[in-house]
Amino acid sequence: MENEQQVTAPVQVTSVSTLTSNPAVVKRFSDILGKKSAGFISSLVSLSKTPALAKADPNTIVSSALIAASLDLPIVPTLGFAAIVPFNDKKTKQTLASFQIMTKGLIQLSQRSGQYRTINVTAVYDGDIKSYNRFTGEIEFDETNIPAEGSEPIGYVAYMKLTNGFEKYLYMSVPELKQHGLHFSQTYRKGYGLWVDNFEAMAKKTVLKLLLSKYGPLSVDTQMTLALQADQAAIRLESIADTDIADATMEYVDNVDEVKEQKAQHVEQLFSDFQTEEQKQ
Question: What whole-number distance in Å separates Cα of residue 209 and Cα of residue 2?
Fold first, then answer.
């Protein structure tokens, strides 16, 4: 009688603590972060125990953390560089964790690239804008204007100037930003999430992200490209221990339309850059 082959059921990961105790996963973080890996993993485990992430799929939490680690951005929410945020996936009825880059993270990656001379994002109050050229996008500010105490911003503006001299502004009014959030974020439409909890942070991130994704030199900035592609995505890796980040499956749970738009803009810029190079030859 032939021996029947014994089939071992796959081990179910029950927590981030279990997953990050795997030597292969620990080595993965160590290879990326070096001496900083132990502190990063400790932050990750603590974060995963918060009520917001406690029910999220541990694999997507750790995969999101790997994206942050690859970008060398801390995931402590109060620091404002990157965050791991839970979303409900209607298709699978699961709670998934998604990677989100924040304003400081975008500025940090821009600075590292060495291509930006100046980059900033700020709130705009009534009387701040002296003139606005809708054709060139140039904005002139009244530096003598002092907002009244307790006044609310009427909009937010992002500005960048590259080392080659190219500069660009992007201004969005508060109503435009709210409309943007309602259009692209299902959680905002339902009355919860980051757009509700911290509108200013999401407003600043939005204008800066749109500015960089449309006018920034993404074709030669792999970290920024990864950050923009992974933003607000539930990351799925075939194997957390050894799958290349470039091969990750990214499911955009909260804002499918925006990510499609950003990818289209990125592909369009890459094609434009390719045509320019061909003309030089």
Answer: 62
Which tens digit of pLDDT belongs to each residue from 163-216? 999 999 999 999 999 999 999 887 888 888 889 999 999 999 999 999 999 999
186 backbone dihedrals φ, ψ, rounded to 5°: -70, -30
Identity of the amino acid at 103: T
The pTM for the full model equals 0.79
HEC assignment per residue over the chain: CCCCCCCCCCCCCCCHHHHCCCHHHHHHHHHHHHHHHHHHHHHHHHHHCCCCCCCCCHHHHHHHHHHHHHCCCCCCHHHCCEEEEEEEECCCCEEEEEEEECHHHHHHHHHHHCCEEEEEEEEECCCCEEEECCCCCCEEECCCCCCCCCCCCCEEEEEEEECCCCEEEEEEEHHHHHHHHHHHCHHHHCCCCHHHHCHHHHHHHHHHHHHHHHHCCHHHCHHHHHHHHHCCEEEECCCCCCCCHHHCEEECCCCHHHHHHHHHHHHHHHHHHHHHHHHHC
Q: Rounded to an integer, what distance in angstroms lies between the CA atom of residue 86 and that of residue 199?
A: 17
In angstroms, the CA 45 to CA 22 distance is: 13
- Using alpha carbons only, give the angle 203, 208, 214 rounded to the nearest 5 degrees: 125
Give the C-alpha separation, 255 to 232, whole Å. 7
Nearest CA-CA partner of 185 in 259, 248, 122:
259
- How far apart (Å, rounded) are the C-alpha atoms in residues 108 and 25? 26
